[in-house]
Amino acid sequence: MVGSPADDAYGDIDAQIREAQERADRSGAWAAQVQQLTGRGTALRGGVTVEVDQGGTVVRLGISDAAAAHGGQMVAQAVLQANTAAQQDLRRRVEESTSAMFGAGSPTTAAVVVDEVARHTPAAGGEPTEPPGPARGGSW
Questions:
Q1: What is the 3-state secondary structure (H, E, C) of 84-132?
Q2: Among 26, 29, 103, which Cα is nearest to 113's?
Q3: pLDDT in tens, 46-83
Q4: SS3 of 50, please?
């Protein structure tokens, strides 16, 4: 006798437990990797750069001297544009990573991208606004 049906059932259960543990390990590694993702955006021909973390918080802001010469109003608008682009980049990167891990149309991907990331990156929902006309007043 090769084995009883009970032995086969226990073997199936053991295999399912191993698979579940492997999925949990991969998911944990994926979650740690996603938490490290950032998004980057630029405006004014690269003169303004913004980097946002997973929570949508600006973690780096760069303004070149050439960009600053455009004046405060133009730079302020460019910072907002670069921030929007950075949030859009972050969403794209999280969606790519999540889709690779769980599948493009999976409920998990939707939950992570739509519910979690979208909540922290509200500016990514809209298109970057156009810069204002020429700056009025002095430069800073």
A1: HHHHHHHHHHHHHHHHHHHCCCCHHHHHHHHHHHHHHCHHHHCCCCCCC
A2: 103
A3: 999 999 998 889 999 999 999 999 999 999 999 999 99
A4: strand
- Reduced DSSP (H G I as helix, E B as strand, rest coil) percent helix, strand, coil of the chain, to 5: 60, 10, 30
- What order of strands is seen across the sheet that includes strand 58-63? 39-43, 48-52, 58-63
Q: Using the predicted structure, report yes or no on whether residue 16 has a pLDDT greater than 60.
A: yes
* d(C-alpha 140, C-alpha 135), whole Å: 11
Average pLDDT over residues 11-27: 83
- Would you call 25 helix, strand, or coil by DSSP? helix
Residues 47, 64: Cα–Cα separation, whole Å: 5
Partners of 40 in beta bridges: 51
- Coil vs helix vs strand at 60: strand
CA atoms of 56 and 102, how far apart (whole Å) = 23
Encoded tokens for 85: 């682009």
